[in-house]
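Residues determine shape. We examine one folded chain.
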Amino acid sequence: MHRHRAMYKGTTPPWKETYRKIFSLKNDGELAVLEEIQQELIAQEQAILEEYDKSMQYEEQCVIAMAEGLDADSHVICPLCHR
């Protein structure tokens, strides 16, 4: 059995090693492109989150200003009975 395996288990053909090297270089290039895309996506995500935070702060300020305006006038109107 050992002799049978030895017949079929030889060294790697040279073309196979060359193919592996080329494929490895190609994958390295693709990896660099993917990393660049990932960095761009992260930057876009951060910009979106910053804009969302600004929007939420503005909304909060608007609600606070409206609430203060209602307290100052002491004219709170019930939405059901309008008193």
Notes: Residues 4 and 72 are 97 Å apart (CA to CA).
